Protein: Sensor histidine kinase
Amino acid sequence: MSRTRFVHQALCYGSDDEFLDGTLTFARDGLDAGDTVLAVVASHNIGLLDEALGDRSEEVEFVDANDWYGSPSRTLGRYNAYCAAHDTDATGRPRGIRVIGEPVWSDRTALEVREWMRYESLLNIAFAGTGHWILCPYDTRALPVGIIRSAVRTHPELALGPRQSAHCGRYVDPADFYAECDTTRPPILPAGRDDVPFARGRSAHVRRAVSAYARGLGVSEQLTHDIVTAVHETVVNSVRHGGGRGVLRLRSDSEYVICEISDPGTPAAPSAPPPPPPFPGHLPPDPSAASGHGMWVVRQLSDLATQTLDPTGSVVRLYFRRSAVL
Structure:
């Protein structure tokens, strides 16, 4: 079975046999059609699918999900780059791409789970104009009910077995799901004596403060560079669109370095200001576009990011994992 439009399906399985019922024919059909087939699944499921495919397993690229699903934005970027590199054959002719993608849900905080749910919904926008096919397995034996319920709200279709599927009646439009995710945001950080005010022309001061803070925590040079770059880009955006000044607050806990950039907005904002761009920074920008890359880069560098964008005052909070977990 082949499709000419983007397909995004959830496979809810409760046994090894159900996992294979949903993935084996999917992979074989893709190989028979000349598609690129990528399986990013739990290590146990790699073994199951590899054995079931037999000699054809060499035609499938396998990746352990723990090595792929590090942060939502970087994972979307990684899929985008993979598809761009594999959507033509050796002669340059278009070819389909089939992905079996099993997100990692274990050991996630509530904030992380919410952002991974948002990621699943955003796939429907990011790949809407393609003919790719993504099948997302959900293990009902191990996952909380809330995560299983989210699957039928973020996937237009349910995979029911070999070449069988059904429309998800509870599927939610990505714009509505995105807005729903934004109804729960962490409170703004309280003021502290180490806060860093910024204004136009003070970006070097911000970079020095962030670098000193990160090094004081003992994080790696690479992570320090990523934090400085992401904060600098966010501050530049804040100065440009938020009235020319703001405050940077630097905090940390056992897991994350947290950087919050807030501004008071534009004092002379029009009575009917334009709405913020949809899905800001979440979707890969057009490589040929002259602008619109900033927040995408910020999200690629950070592990998590929350945004409240408003002409009367915006807050962007960036999270950087202190240790190299996932």
Notes: The chain has a mean pLDDT of 91. The first helix runs from residue 16 to 32. The chain has two domains: 7-181, 196-268+291-321. The CA atoms of residues 20 and 48 lie 7 Å apart.
